Amino acid sequence: MSAQELVATAKAMVAPGKGILAMDESNGTCNKRFEALGIAPTEENRRAYRELILTAPGLGEYISGVILYDETIRQAKKNGTSFVKVITDAGIIPGIKVDTGAKDLANHPQEKVTEGLDGLRSRIAEYYVMGARFAKWRAVITISEKIPSRGCIEANAHALARYAALCQEGGLVPIVEPEVLMDGDHTIERCYEVTEEVLHTVFNQLYVQRVVLEQIILKPSMVISGKDCPKQANVVEVAQATVDCLLRAVPAAVQGVAFLSGGQSNEVASAHLHEMNARFSSILPWSVTFSYARAIQQPALELWKGDNANVQTAQKTLLHRAKCNSAARNGKYSP
Ligand code: 13P
Hints:
InterPro entries: Aldolase_TIM (IPR013785), FBA_I (IPR000741). By secondary structure, the protein is an alpha/beta fold. It is 47% helix and 15% strand. The chain has an 8-stranded parallel barrel, surrounded by 7 helices. A two-stranded antiparallel sheet has the order 4-5. Helix 10 (266-280) runs antiparallel to helix 11 (294-304) and helix 10 (266-280) packs parallel to helix 12 (311-329).
């Protein structure tokens, strides 16, 4: 794939009024979410649920790309049509999660490093042939009194950069996702400080590995109070802190920023995205949109409950959240 094609894909992923739907939960995570709602954690249920999402009528009006998991990219509708065909027919770009998960980082208690570099070049080649045009790799940074450590931040930034370089070589646009978790009682100021350090380190490593910034999408977490912090920053404060932090740490050449929701409620995730676009779009050098999983899917999953009879109601709810976030991407959301 040429440089122009990678740039065109990255631009399309963050096009006005559109954002990315993450539906790349590993089987373990998907099963956990099913079990919490009494849905049997079977391969057929995972397939049926993903069919519900991908066949929601008009999904492509709000969604530019969907991130799939290895099992899902190989699956098909009940009638045999492959999911990749369903996605492309809807005008949506298929993407694929390629990391193999966050594992304990040796000598760093409570910290993780994301794995998946071994054999990645050939997996990328296979996914490209299957129709994927972008990929995702998620690094996880935890905040507590003594962490994150430099060792954790640097190991994750290095892996993200090696992954991104391999993606570009193989024709996929890399989504670079350094997630600073909301878990903990830290303040928004502490989240700011950690996010800024993480982003600076990631962009330094992307530079060292010769990653082309115009051909990536950054998927950061927002700068937000820890979920157990007694003082919760409001929507305006979160939008301001997130924009300030990103303006200081994210080069203007980056094609787009697509936030994760990270456990924020559906409405709050939309409100934060709206506020950033409504207040700051004239000074932001990149398009700012969503790449949400839970904040789009959760209400639909709760309505579906594993029952075919609930498919249409669940699809309506899914489309509603997609539409709300599409409006927020344009700074036009009202709850
Ligand atoms: P959430 O929006 O649920 O945080 O998920 C986004 C994602 O893809 C995490 O890697």
